[in-house]
């Protein structure tokens, strides 16, 4: 048995999620039974657990690195922003309503959520060791700290050896580390066992003086300096990462795939496998000219389908997508994007907001009515009537879509109730829509999508699961080479 460990940050996007995944893999390699935990996650990237509950995608990735199935106890509170001022609150895997930031941060609500979070942690800690906790944002936000349910309050509950991560690539690392620790109360600082400097460019030996100076300034040892890497792939947590995604088409010669950059784009990890296919040049865009020049246009998922649909219409992007389709390009919709491709999206009960309905792009003869009950489940299916049920994906949506007239489904579901149910609408190889997130992780689907534009077949289809496992091993090796793992193990020994 080992003490739990926690990784917290000087700010958002300093690398907490990736480092947490790396240590989940390290502990698994060393014969332990780790599990990830994040009390509260704010992200539009989510995942369905085997039990049909919803958690943040980052915790599903970390569970994968730990070699275990994801579970709702790994992320009991998930916030999914629906606008700049409000988020859907998902508690223990199920939505409990949409709240403004003001409503959410009221003290009584937070107390109840903290109780739920500690209960989830305790259940998880009874089954796994060590639990690898991840913090959120900065641990020194003074105006939020007394209502915090994610960072050092949770570290104290768990008794976790806590490590502070700072991003040196953004500059000001001495000020951010010193200031963060200086703002902690003595009992909070006592949780901090070490500092990890992340995203260092160049020869890390040049920072030896910096390590010593930080240790002298703060009284906390620097246990590692992690070099910046571009050659290890780990799925990213949330839409902050979209700023670093490829935003323009690359060199000619490959199939150009444009993912429409929606305001509330969700589950952008749907496109990771396709982005690694050597036949495809995948990029994110909201430029009409780039959409018109693409071979394939994908409308992704959205946390606010009607608002994003209206934005597409008002900006002229809807017309650009329809024009591209009429010019012979392929248009595909996933989840909210599937709803947008239909004739209308209706919200009579105000599930997403005050707008009761919006006209869709009209490329598919379907109509969607948004409903309060959310569908969340993993799925196994055949694609376009294939013989083998060897494709996998998952559903996370709040709409029911009906088809006007007979239709060929995109997929036939082979699990759940009832088995044999259809999913999506297939209007032909150049236009179809589906509710299945992760559908493009399947080689058969990628081959069918690219077939109209290239005769080339990959020498061997990408086994995306094996590829990701290889990346977790490489991430673990990268951490072992640059972090004092022996010091960390020493801090995790129980009395």
What is the CATH H-level superfamily of the largest domain? Answer: P-loop containing nucleotide triphosphate hydrolases
Radius of gyration (CA) equals 23 Å
- Decide which structural class fits the backbone: alpha/beta
Note the total helix count.
17
Shape: globular
In total, the number of domains comes to 2
What is the CA-CA span between the terminal residues? 11 Å
How much is the average pLDDT?
91
Helix content: 25-40%
Provide the CATH topology of the largest domain: Rossmann fold
CATH architecture of the largest domain: 3-Layer(aba) Sandwich
Q: Outline the low-pLDDT stretches.
A: none
Write structural notes for this entry.
The structure is a single chain. The chain is built from 17 helices and 26 strands. It is of the alpha/beta class and 495 residues long. The protein folds into 2 domains: 5-234 and 469-491, P-loop containing nucleotide triphosphate hydrolases (Rossmann fold), CATH 3.40.50.300; 255-453, Rossmann fold (3-Layer(aba) Sandwich). Strands 2-9-1-10-11-12 form a 6-stranded parallel sheet, sandwiched between helices. A 6-stranded mixed sheet has the order 15-13-16-18-26-25. Strands 19, 20, 21, 22, 23 and 24 form a 6-stranded mixed sheet that branches. A hairpin with a 4-residue loop joins strand 6 (77-81) and strand 7.
Name the features:
Rossmann fold; 27% strand; 2 domains; six-stranded parallel sheet; 31% helix; six-stranded mixed sheet; alpha/beta; 495 residues
Lay out the secondary structure.
Layout: E1 5-9, H1 16-29, E2 35-37, E3 40-42, E4 46-48, E5 54-56, H2 57-66, E6 77-81, E7 86-91, E8 94-100, H3 101-104, H4 107-125, E9 131-134, H5 142-145, H6 152-158, E10 161-167, H7 173-182, H8 186-189, E11 192-200, H9 208-218, E12 222-227, E13 255-260, E14 265-266, H10 272-275, E15 280-285, H11 288-293, E16 296-299, E17 301-302, H12 305-315, H13 317-326, E18 330-334, H14 336-340, E19 344-346, E20 357-359, E21 366-383, E22 391-403, E23 411-413, E24 422-423, E25 425-426, E26 431-434, H15 443-450, H16 464-482, H17 485-491
Parallel strand pairs: 1-9, 1-10, 2-9, 3-6, 10-11, 11-12, 13-15, 13-16, 16-18, 18-26, 19-21
Antiparallel strand pairs: 4-5, 6-7, 7-8, 14-17, 19-20, 21-22, 21-23, 23-24, 25-26
Helix pairs in contact: 1-2, 1-16, 7-9
């Amino acid at each position: 048995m080992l003490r739990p460990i926690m990784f917290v940050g000087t700010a958002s996007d300093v690398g907490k999620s990736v480092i947490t995944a790396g240590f989940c893999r390290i502990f698994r390699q060393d014969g332990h039974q780790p599990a990830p935990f994040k009390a509260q996650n704010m992200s539009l990237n989510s995942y369905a657990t085997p039990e049909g509950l919803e958690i943040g995608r980052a915790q599903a990735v970390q569970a994968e690195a730990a070699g275990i199935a994801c579970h709702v106890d790994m992320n009991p509170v998930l916030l999914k922003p629906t606008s700049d001022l409000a988020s859907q609150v998902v508690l223990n895997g199920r939505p409990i309503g949409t709240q403004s930031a003001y409503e959410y941060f009221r003290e009584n609500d937070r107390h109840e959520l903290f109780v739920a979070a500690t209960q989830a942690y305790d259940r998880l800690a009874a089954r796994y060791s060590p639990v690898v906790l991840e913090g959120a944002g900065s641990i020194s936000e003074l105006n939020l700290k007394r209502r915090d349910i994610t960072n050092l309050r949770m570290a104290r509950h768990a008794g976790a050896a806590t490590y502070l991560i700072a991003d040196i690539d953004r500059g000001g690392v001495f000020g951010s580390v010193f200031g963060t620790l200086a703002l902690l109360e003595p009992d909070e600082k006592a949780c901090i066992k070490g500092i990890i400097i992340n995203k260092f460019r160049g020869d890390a030996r040049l920072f030896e003086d910096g390590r010593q100076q930080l240790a002298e300034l703060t009284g906390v040892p620097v246990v590692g300096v992690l070099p910046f890497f571009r050659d290890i792939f780990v799925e990213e947590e949330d839409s902050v990462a979209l700023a670093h995604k490829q935003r323009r088409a690359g060199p000619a010669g490959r199939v150009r795939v444009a993912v429409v950059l929606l305001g509330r784009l969700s589950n952008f990890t749907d496109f990771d496998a396709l982005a690694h296919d050597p036949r495809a040049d995948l990029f994110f865009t909201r430029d009409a000219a780039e959409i018109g020049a693409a071979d394939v246009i994908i409308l992704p998922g959205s946390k606010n389908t009607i608002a994003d649909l209206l934005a597409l219409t008002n900006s002229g992007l809807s017309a650009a997508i329809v024009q591209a389709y009429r010019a012979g390009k392929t248009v595909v919709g996933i989840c909210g994007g599937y709803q947008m491709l239909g004739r209308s999206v209706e919200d009579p009960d105000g599930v997403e907001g005050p707008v009761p309905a919006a006209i869709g792009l009209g490329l598919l003869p379907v109509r969607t009515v948004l409903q309060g009950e959310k569908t969340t489940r993993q799925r196994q299916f055949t694609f376009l009537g294939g013989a083998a049920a060897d494709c996998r994906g998952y559903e996370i949506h709040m709409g029911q879509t009906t088809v006007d007239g007979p239709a060929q489904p995109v997929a036939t579901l082979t699990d759940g109730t009832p088995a044999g149910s259809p999913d999506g609408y297939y209007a032909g190889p150049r236009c179809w829509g589906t509710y299945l997130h992760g559908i493009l992780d399947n080689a058969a689907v990628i081959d069918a999508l690219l077939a109209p534009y290239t005769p080339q077949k990959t020498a061997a289809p990408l086994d995306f699961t094996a590829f990701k496992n290889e990346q977790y091993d490489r991430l673990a090796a990268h951490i072992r080479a640059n972090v004092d793992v022996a010091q960390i193990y020493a801090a995790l020994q129980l009395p």
